[in-house]
TrEMBL record:
Residues 19-29 have a biased composition (Low complexity). Gene3D superfamilies: Globins. The lineage of its organism: Bacteria, Pseudomonadati, Myxococcota, Polyangia, Polyangiales. This is Period clock protein. Residues 30-51 have a biased composition (Gly residues). One of its GO terms (molecular function) is oxygen binding. Transmembrane segments: none annotated. Residues 14-51 are annotated as: Disordered.
Length: 184
């Protein structure tokens, strides 16, 4: 239910003293090529080949493209997770605490996400992911399902599957991050 702090160690700030507001541009693509060659000789041969390829990809600028939507999307993620039978028990104490507690949690998660993707600096003041998930014993399957819920909410709000896969998912599926939640 949380996002990786991609700009660690300060979780939103850079160690160089800058304000930490960064974007990550990642271009990905695939290409194919073909080549042919012929050779002659006894025991040795020569040949030439050429290949060409083209690729398309997505440029990731999470903050520029979607930073303003983080509060609304975060609210929807929390609401859907709290109503999902797989996560209901984890969210029950929060829901039982009442609307103010739920809103405070949404605000805290919004700050974490904004810091993690470099859209803000130092706004998240909550516990570490280990502390936040201590005693919950979240399994890898549960974690993967939560990442799937996040992806679904993003796509429901107009984010393309390619953008989710290339820009949002890598931080969430990074084993170094998921290990701060799974099994705590």
């Amino acid at each position: 239910m949380t996002f990786v702090c991609a700009v660690a160690p300060g979780c939103g700030g850079d160690d160089d003293g800058s304000d930490g507001n960064t974007s990550t541009d990642t271009d990905t693509g695939t290409g194919t090529g073909t080549g042919t060659g012929t050779g002659t000789g006894t025991g040795t041969g020569t040949g030439t080949g050429t290949g060409t390829g083209t690729g398309t990809g997505v440029t990731c600028d999470v903050c520029g493209d979607y930073g303003a939507a983080v509060p609304a999307v975060t609210s929807q993620i929390v609401d859907e997770a709290a109503a999902d039978p797989m996560f209901e028990a984890d969210f029950a104490p929060l829901v039982t605490a009442g609307p103010t507690a739920v809103q405070n949690f949404k605000d805290s998660l919004t700050a974490f996400i904004s810091d993690a993707y470099g859209c803000s600096t130092g706004t998240y003041m909550g516990p570490s992911m280990e502390e936040a998930h201590m005693g919950m014993n979240i399994t890898q399957d549960e974690y993967n399902a939560f990442v799937g819920l996040i992806a679904g909410v993003l796509m429901d709000n107009g984010v393309s599957e390619e953008y989710v896969t290339e820009c949002f998912a890598p931080a969430l599926t990074d084993p170094a991050f998921s290990s701060t939640i799974v099994g705590q």
